[in-house]
Amino acid sequence: MCVSVCVSHGICRSLSLCVYIYSNTHSGGGLRWQMAEFTHLVVVKFKEEVVVEDIIKGLEELVSQVDIVKSFVWGKDIESMEMLRQGFTHAFMMTFGSKDDFTAFQTHPNHMQFSATFSAAIEKIVLLDFPVVAFKTPQ
Amino acid sequence: MCVSVCVSHGICRSLSLCVYIYSNTHSGGGLRWQMAEFTHLVVVKFKEEVVVEDIIKGLEELVSQVDIVKSFVWGKDIESMEMLRQGFTHAFMMTFGSKDDFTAFQTHPNHMQFSATFSAAIEKIVLLDFPVVAFKTPQ
After folding, report:
1. Structural domains in chain A (count)
2. d(CA A94, CA A115)
3. For residue A51, what is the domain's CATH number?
4. Which of A63, A78, B5, B95 could form a disulfide with B71 if both were Cys (CB 3.0 to 4.6 A apart)?
5. A69 touches chain B (CB under 8 A)
């Protein structure tokens, strides 16, 4: 396993955090790179009476206040068949530079405060937290 | 609404696809940018007897074969409480340059062929397809 800072390596030319850990495995003709990133993925269905825009504003304020949140993107499903999305409507993804940063985020007072609001707004949720394996990245 | 190619704008300095559509809305002290990207998010629990590594190799082959898949990252949950991940273990995310590219992917013969294998391997699935709203991007 090697850690490299890749300035000119094509695979991460377009990414900001160019520290990858070669994962020792390769398959399908490509190499897997374990990005030095950790993703917090939240998929939800909000309660009917909830003003979703207010919740999203709250999330935006939270990630603006907490520097260790490296990125925050989200989306509202517009395409899936109901049997596949199973009532879930929104996905929220935050990334962190490391698992340690994510752990620090979990107990950050702003996060804990907002979590109460968020929890009260959701009808159902699936939450996954994982180190990012990047197989194909934008060229 | 304006479309801009941002070479020097800080918010997308580190991203490869620097075409953003200003979404006309702002909140929380920040601006929302509608990226010219479409995400296909799949969250799954595999059947017990499945060799997950084989499925992942199949996915890697698929995204290697199909150029319109702009990026493919995935992860296996290592952190969530069971009540929050609800048995789901893996998240797979593919991005496309546009919804049209995603639509083309759905009927691509390689995708249709692999979908049969993938469907047979899963015990449960949640699938969301959405245009990406990027509120905070890596600096």
Report:
1. 1
2. 14
3. 3.30.70.100
4. B95
5. yes
Q: Residue B29 — left, alpha, or beta (φ > 0 → left; ψ -120 to 50 → alpha)?
A: left
Q: Does B63 touch chain A (CB under 8 A)?
A: yes
Kindly state whether residue A46 falls inside one of the protein's structural domains.
yes
The answer to whether the Cβ–Cβ distance between B28 and A70 falls below 8 Å is: no
Q: Is residue A28 part of a domain?
A: no
CA separation, residue A46 to residues A3, A17, A43, B83, B128 (Å): 41, 33, 10, 17, 15
User: Whole-model pTM?
Assistant: 0.79
Q: Is A12 exposed, middle or buried (0-12, 13-18, 19+ CB in 10 A)?
A: buried
Reported ipTM: the value is 0.79
Closest CA to A79 of B52, B43, B31, B41: B41
- Residues B110 and B66: beta-carbon distance below 8 Å: yes
Give the C-alpha separation, A86 to A84, whole Å.
5
Q: What is the pLDDT of residues A90-130, one digit of tens each?
A: 999 999 999 999 999 999 999 999 999 999 999 999 999 99
